[in-house]
Design a protein that fits this description.
- This protein is an alpha+beta fold.
- It has 2 domains: 88 residues; 130 residues, Jelly Rolls, CATH 2.60.120.40.
- Helices cover 54% and strands 26% of the residues.
- Strands 3, 5, 6, 8, 9 and 11 form a 6-stranded antiparallel beta sheet that branches. Strands 4-1-13-7-10 form a 5-stranded antiparallel beta sheet, with no helix packed on it.
- Helix 1 packs across helix 3.
- The radius of gyration is 75 Å and the shape is rod-shaped.
- It starts with a helix and ends with a strand.
- The relative contact order is 0.10.
- About 7% of the residues have low confidence.
- Keywords: Coiled coil, Secreted, Signal.
Amino acid sequence: MRGAGALLVLLFCLSGTWAQGQSGGVRENDITLQGHSEQGESSNNGGSDIWAQLKALRDKVQSMGTILVEQRVEMRYMGNRLTASESQVEELKRDNAALETRLSVSERLGEELKRDNAAQAAALSAMGARVTASESQVEVLKTENAAQAAELSALGSQVEELKRENTDRPKVAFSAGLTNSGKVGPFNTETQLIYTKVFTNVGNTYNPNTGIFTAPVRGVYYFRFSMVSYETALLGGLNMYRNGQIILHNGQFYNAGNEYVCNGVTLHLQKGDTVHMRLPNGWAVYDDDSNHSTFSGFLLFPM
C-alpha cells in the first residue's frame, strides 16, 4: 500500500509538470525554439512522445486512484462488517457459554430425574406387587364373605324359623316342693301327693291343688322327682303315674339317718295326658323348708 501511494504521488507530480508545459511553459520553449529551429523540431518530436506517455500514465494513475478509493471504501465497509461480525461472534460466544451452562444444569437435572425415575419405578413396582397381592386377598375375602353371607342368610332363615317355632311352641315348665310340715305318711292306702310349694309353673300346666300335671300339647316331656325318707320310717318311696298307669317306682329301706332318692324319665305325651306322684301304702317321705322332696317337669319339644 505504501509503494502504491508513492507511485501515485510521483505520477501526480509528473502530471502537474505536463500541465504547465501545455500552458505557460510552451511559450518559453517557443521563444527558445525560435533561435534554434533545427534543434527545436527534433526536441518537440521527442517531448510529444514523452508527454503522451505521461498522459497515459496519468490516466492510469487516476484510474488506479479511483480504484484505490473504492477499495478504501470497500475496506472500510468490510472493516465495519468485520467489527460487527466480531461483536456477533463475542455475543454468540457468551450465548454459547450461557447455553453450555444451562445444558450442564439440564444434564445434571436429567441425571437426577433418571435416578428419581428409577427409584419411583422401583417403588411403583413394589406398590404394584402389593396392590396385586391386596387385590388377590380382596377377591379371597369377597369369596369368603359371599360364602359367609350365604351361611348367614341360611342361619337367618333358620333363626326366623326357630323364632316362629318358638313363638308357636307352648312354654311349659314347672317345679314344686312337697310341704313344710315334715313327715308325710305312712298311710294304709296309696295316697296322691300334692306338691303345694310351687317354684315355677310356666303355662300353668301343674295344678297345686291336685298335684297333677296336664300336658297342653302333644310332645316329649321330661319329669324328675326327689325325696328323703323319715328317720323313724322303715320304708321310703314314690310311684310316678301317667293317666293312672304306673311309670316307675323308687324306694329306699331305712338304715340310719336320712335316705335320699332321685330319678327322672322322658315321656311322650298326648295333649290332655296327666302325670302325678303317689305315696305307696305303708311308706313315708319327709320335707321341710329345705325342700328335700320335689316334683318337676318341662316340655322338650312338641310333635
